[in-house]
Structures are given as C-alpha cells and as structure tokens.
UniProtKB/TrEMBL annotation:
It comes from Amycolatopsis bartoniae. It comes from the Bacteria. Pfam families: TetR_C_11, TetR_N. Signal peptide: none annotated. Keywords: DNA-binding, Transcription, Transcription regulation. This is TetR family transcriptional regulator. One of its GO terms (molecular function) is transcription cis-regulatory region binding.
C-alpha cells in the first residue's frame, strides 16, 4: 500500500493554491471560478483558503501577482525614444491577455460588495515593473539628446498600462499593432515632451532675474568692464 503523501503547509500550500487558481481562471474564467473548485483541485479545504484570502477577488489577485514578473526579463533598448516606447507598449499589450482583462473586470465588479478589493487591485497594478523600465527609457533618451531631463510622476508611469488595459477591455481582444503605435505617437510621446518642457520652464523660473541678466564671464572669471 503506497504511503500517503505528506500534507502541504505554509508557503508550499499557498503556492499550490495560487497556481491552481490561475489554471482555473484560464480554463473557466473569473465568473465561473469558485473557492470550492480550487480547494478540491488543490486537495485542501475551503476554510484553509479563506484563512488566507477572505474572498474570491483577493485569491485571484494573489494568483495574478504570482504569475506576473516583477521586472522586465529582457531590457528594451532600440536606440531611439520612439522605438523604445513602441517596444514597451507592444510588450505590455501582449501581456494584457483575455485572462488579465477578465480578472480586472471581475474584481471591479466585486468591489461593490468588497470595497477593500479596489485597493488590492491598485496595489497589484502599482507593482508593475513599468516605472523603472520607463524611467530607464527616458534617461537614455535624455543622454542621447532626444528629450530634456524629466522625472516621471507615478501617474505618468501608469499611463501605458492604463491606456492598453482600456483598449483591451473595450476591444475584448488583442491590440492591433497600429493601435500600439498610435498610443505612442498621439498620446505618450506628446505627454513626455510636454513634461520635459515644463521641467525646463520650472528650472528657468527658479533662477533669480538678476542672475539671468548678469553679463557673460570672460577670461579668468572676471567680467569685462568698460573704461569710465
């Protein structure tokens, strides 16, 4: 008689539950996923799951977090700001598959009964590796002279994901390549150039008027003066 398998506990059990939750999402979708089906497939009980996640939305968001990388696996560097942005938007669009779209729509639908779920969703979206990747792209563009120096506010780093998620939700399917290019050319590039121009104006305005009007420095740092 084969020996019974040891019971899984702690993180090992949590990982199994989250992996099975994701498989269920892919197979049956958010609306048909149940805690009972996950528990049965994970060979555990509903109370065990509810001790860790208080509702289906929390469980699904945790499963999504486990499936999403915390950093870009392959750095983006095409040699131009526009090329980098198109490559980044394309990569995000490829990840914005039907499962992610359905998860977001389903979780938002449950927010009326579980308001705390909205904050969990926001946390999940803020954990995207988008911020560091975008800042690296911008820094390289500044170094190449394509863009004036600019620090990206948090909301601006979330714009690509927000735009692509909105397109995916509306279209209920993969984004066409031209839509990716249009978002870069018509929305995000103008936004970046506008932010950079505003940063330059802010630096200029912070310089005292007297300093702006000083004559140029010549020679060893002495101003040339006309003989009286």
């Amino acid at each position: 008689m084969p020996e019974p398998k040891p019971r899984r506990r702690g993180k090992e059990l949590e990982d199994v539950i989250l992996d099975i939750t994701w498989v269920e999402l892919v197979e049956v979708g958010y609306n048909r996923l149940t805690i009972e089906s996950v528990a049965k497939r994970a060979r555990t009980s509903k109370p065990v799951i509810y001790r860790r996640w208080s509702n289906r939305a929390e469980l699904v968001l945790a499963a999504w977090a486990r499936q999403t990388p915390t950093e870009m696996a392959v750095p983006i560097d095409t040699g131009s700001l526009r090329g980098d942005l198109i490559a980044l938007f394309r990569r995000v669009a490829e990840r914005a598959n039907s499962v992610m779209t359905e998860v977001i729509a389903g979780v938002m639908g449950e927010a009326f009964r579980h308001p705390e779920v909205v904050e969990l969703l926001h946390q999940r979206l803020r954990q995207s590796p988008m911020s560091s990747t975008l800042q690296a792209i911008v820094d390289r563009a500044v170094a190449r002279g394509e863009l004036d120096p600019v620090e990206l506010p948090a909301r601006v780093t979330r714009v690509p994901l927000d735009l692509i998620r909105n397109e995916t939700l509306l279209c209920r399917g993969p984004m066409p390549e031209q839509a990716v290019i249009d978002l870069v050319d018509e929305v995000y590039l103008p936004l970046l150039h506008g932010l950079a121009a505003r940063s330059v104006e802010a630096v200029h305005d912070s310089v005292p008027l007297a300093a702006r009007d000083e004559p140029a420095v010549h020679g060893c740092g002495q101003h040339e003066r006309q003989e009286q």
